[in-house]
Design brief:
The complex is a heterodimer of chains A (705) and B (114). Chain A is an alpha+beta fold and 705 residues long. Helices cover 40% and strands 21% of the residues of chain A. In chain A, strands 8-9-5-3-11 form a 5-stranded mixed sheet. Chain A has a 5-stranded mixed sheet with strand order 4-12-10-6-7, with no helix packed on it. Chain B has helices at residues 2-20, 24-50, 55-79, 91-113. The chains are: A alpha+beta (705), B mainly alpha (114). At the A-B interface, helix 15, helix 16 and helix 17 of A face helix 2 and helix 4 of B. Chain B: It is a multi-pass membrane protein.
Chain lengths: 705, 114
């Protein structure tokens, strides 16, 4: 599928094969997962986006860049409420502006097709030519070269000098990096934020324009330059990131934290650039079709843009994709509901991403399966015919299928002739064939419990939605029976068949109506249901609910109003719950739960605690008194010399350890304490050892002497 | 009845006179033990009055006193010259052990105090 580019090196081949495998896998996954059908940009979305761009009093939409975005976006949206005359005149008057402003001036003039082209050219050309020579970053190059290329034909002195062009090309080559991304400017180092990014795609339009200008001056570098540029382009597409489920996009540098703007802007830049490149190169730029479809997926699924700039990126990317040379993504939307009664064809709408019809494709139905039954394909390999003037393709689906139900379709869209449309592989969708179901033979009766003889019976007409009234007591039964027939004549079994009894106080009871034989039947024995009905006597409305996804006329039909007489509730039964009259009250906020936090424990009165604090210190005082009484003394305490130092530091160290413990209790943590303790222990150990050994020597001397 | 009282009196007097001959150092240690135990008593009375709410605080208080008392008793045993078991142990060494064990005990107590 993907041929190698001429002049590309073998590693690129291997890289491309790996990419191909990866994208095939992605395509297969896309087929397997039942993804929702993609929608083109709807009219409602277009209105919303157009609402972003609000003009000032002088016709501008903000700065020059914002005005260009607005003007271009509104042109894509085909809106005509742009004050082009005012903008053109204002734009011509600007002078001594920067290269960036000059670029936007030129672009605005081009979009609005201002008649003052030559005057604009006279003003901006010198600025741009200076910009080309002085440029040392991609962005400046882009602005200057891009603008010059646009105004090529507007005046006679806008040609760029040959040497300047070759300088530009050398600069471009310098800024390229091996993995497909580019440096922002020459002065940026490897590790700077912008250097890691994909700012590069600006290089594409620049390169495209440079090549164009080269050919004009017939430079020999052409073939080798084309080769290297193509390789760079393919490598760049290798940086495509996936969001899963077939959505591909480009993201900005890894350091950039902004999400949507970054990805949209980067994707737009790559698309614009590659489109410009593809327009200029003599050979086709090979990009995998699934990738292009994945980018379309990203642009359309990313939701509504949040700002005018994002809207511009989205719209401009989509307009590039409308006629993108490598592959044009198209959106296939089969109709999702088909009615037997109206007898219409199965229609498939095929449009571009912006909603324009595409007439040159062949739509074929690969297979159609009935969902639910494990049956073989109902139909396969049918072609669709183009319905004139509608942009849709149709085929007579109804004649081939057997009955109502949901069918899974697999469609294949092939481009005719030389066009390069892509629909992202096989399109899977489902269509539900519906029809009106006839309801007949509806009988409602009140039977006597013992004998089964109907006390009251009525046959109700469905067409007229008849309602009758009847009364019963707890000794009787209510009997309902009816038949449902599908258009093919067989009996129809819907997904939901319920009978609902609604009391006047809005208490509801639901009963399932079971099928029996050809129809449906239900008997409610009130004797057994008295408790379930919570002894509520009064008027009940009897409602029949029938529904199914293949039924066009699902209904809620009030059959009768039933006056039910039940015995009194015995003592002690709970009252029935009062149902809020307003249905929306169910969704109102619930009552707030007051959280009761755990009560703090009861502490003793402070006075008592303080008294006992005093009492605890009492034995200590008793200890000192006792010591004095015993005649303990510290006469032997050395106060002078080294020993004195040792003694003092020993006791001091012990005291400091006790102080440390006190601080530990107050605020320190264990780790700090242990660290300090280690230090203090050392401090205690050394003097302690010396003083104690001195004392030991003293006592042994005393013993021996 | 009377004989038991006189016997008790005689016992107390005998104990007292015997006790008077103990060295002062040992008496200091005994006083320290009595002081610790008195502190324990005060704490237990307090707890019985107000309940044992921060139980860890109560336990650490009690254990600190009892631990100190126990260590003091050990010191007394080791320092006592009449005790043949610890004849070769220099009393300064015993005192150093006492200090060390007390410091470790109090570190643990302070951690548990919370």
């Amino acid at each position: 599928m993907a041929n190698t580019a001429p002049g590309a090196s073998p590693p690129v081949v291997a890289y491309l094969r790996w990419l191909l495998l990866g994208w095939l896998l992605a395509a297969v996954c896309q087929m397997v997962t039942a993804s929702t059908v993609l929608q083109p940009l709807s009219d409602g979305d277009k209105e919303a986006i157009a609402g972003y761009f609000v003009a000032d009093a002088d016709g501008f939409y903000g700065s020059l860049q914002e005005t260009y975005h607005a003007v271009k976006a509104l042109e894509i949206l085909e809106r005509s409420d742009v004050e082009s005359q005012k903008i053109c005149e204002a734009v011509v008057k600007s002078s001594s502006i920067s290269v960036e402003d000059a670029f936007y001036v030129v672009k605005i003039t081009e979009v609005l097709q201002c008649p003052q082209g030559a005057e604009v050219a006279k003003v901006v050309v010198p600025i741009l030519q200076a910009g080309v020579v002085n440029a040392n970053s991609l962005l400046e190059l882009h602005y200057s070269v891009g603008a010059l290329a646009t105004i090529k034909g507007w005046s006679s002195n806008s040609a760029v000098h040959k040497d300047a062009l070759s300088d530009v090309f050398t600069l471009l080559k310098e800024l390229a990096r091996p993995d497909g991304t580019w440096h922002y400017s020459k002065s940026d180092s490897e590790s700077s934020v912008k250097a890691a990014g994909l700012f590069p795609p600006f290089s594409f339009p620049t390169t495209a324009i440079v090549l164009q200008l080269f050919w004009q001056s017939q430079n020999v570098c052409m073939i080798a330059c084309i080769g290297s540029v193509k390789t760079a382009a393919i490598k760049l597409f290798g940086n495509l990131e996936s969001h899963g489920q077939g959505v591909f996009y480009f993201s900005e540098s890894k350091d950039e934290t902004s999400q949507g703007g970054g990805a949209l802007a980067a994707t737009w830049a790559v698309l614009r650039g590659s489109a410009a490149l593809a327009a200029v190169l003599p050979v086709n730029l090979k990009v995998e079709k699934e990738k292009v479809f994945g980018i379309a997926n990203f642009l359309l699924r990313t939701g509504l843009a949040l700002s005018p700039t994002e809207a511009f990126y989205q719209l401009d990317s989509l307009s590039v994709l409308e006629d993108y040379r490598p592959a044009v993504p198209i959106i296939v939307q089969p109709s999702s509901i088909l009615s037997l009664n109206s007898n219409n064809n199965l229609e498939v709408a095929v449009t571009t991403v912006l909603g324009k019809p595409v007439p040159q494709v062949e739509v074929a139905l690969v297979s159609a399966h009935h969902i639910g039954a494990d049956s073989p394909p109902v139909w396969s390999s049918q072609n669709f015919n183009y319905i004139e003037d509608s942009g849709k393709y149709g085929c007579d689906f109804l004649s081939a299928i057997s009955g109502l139900g949901k069918y899974k379709l697999r469609l294949e869209v092939k481009p005719k002739e030389h066009s390069s449309y892509t629909s992202g592989g096989l399109v899977t969708s489902s269509v539900t064939v519906v029809s009106a179901i006839t309801v007949s033979n509806v009988q409602l009766a009140v039977l006597d419990s013992d004998s089964g003889i109907p006390d009251f019976s009525a046959v109700l007409d469905f067409e007229k939605q008849e309602k009758t009234s009847l009364s019963a007591n707890h000794l009787q039964k209510l009997h309902l029976s009816f038949e449902l027939t599908s258009p093919s004549g067989s009996s129809f079994k819907p997904q939901q068949v319920f009978l609902k009894l609604v009391h006047e106080t809005h208490v509801e009871h639901l009963y399932l109506v079971k099928s029996s034989g050809k129809g449906f039947e239900l008997t409610l024995d009130f004797l057994g249901l008295v408790e379930k009905l919570q002894y509520l006597s009064g008027t009940y409305s009897v409602v029949l609910i029938v529904g199914d996804e293949t039924m066009e006329n699902s209904f809620v039909w009030t059959l009768a109003s039933l006056d039910l007489d039940l015995p009194e509730a015995p003592e002690g039964t709970a009252l029935p719950p009062t149902v809020p009259v307003e249905v929306n009250a169910r969704f109102a906020p619930k009552p707030e739960i007051a959280h009761i936090f755990r009560q703090p424990e009861k502490r003793p009165p402070i006075l008592l605690s303080n008294v006992f604090l005093g009492l605890t210190l009492l034995p200590l005082i008793g200890f000192f008194v006792g010591l004095r009484y015993l005649g303990a003394n510290i006469k032997l305490f050395p106060t002078t010399g080294l020993l004195g130092v040792a003694a003092f530091s020993f006791h001091g160290a012990i005291a400091s350890i006790l102080l440390l413990y006190f601080l530990f209790w107050l605020k320190l943590d264990l780790f700090t304490t242990l660290k300090v303790l280690g230090f203090l222990a050392l401090l205690t150990l050394l003097p302690g050892h010396s003083i104690l050994s001195y004392l030991a020597d003293l006592s042994t001397k005393q013993k021996t002497s | 009845m009377g004989s038991t009282i006189t016997d008790a009196q005689a016992l107390v007097t005998a104990l007292r006179s015997a006790y008077a001959s103990t060295p002062i150092k040992l008496k200091i240690i005994d006083l320290y033990v009595v002081f610790s135990l008195a502190t324990v008593l005060v704490q237990v009375i307090y707890m019985s009055l107000v309940g044992s709410f921060p139980f860890n605080a109560f336990l650490s208080g009690i254990l600190s006193c009892i631990g100190s008392a126990v260590l003091a008793v050990c010191l007394r045993m080791q320092v006592n010259k009449e005790n043949k078991e610890f004849k070769n142990l220099p009393p300064e060494r015993a005192f150093a052990d006492f200090v060390l064990c007390n410091l470790v005990l109090h570190l643990i107590i302070m951690n548990f105090l919370g």
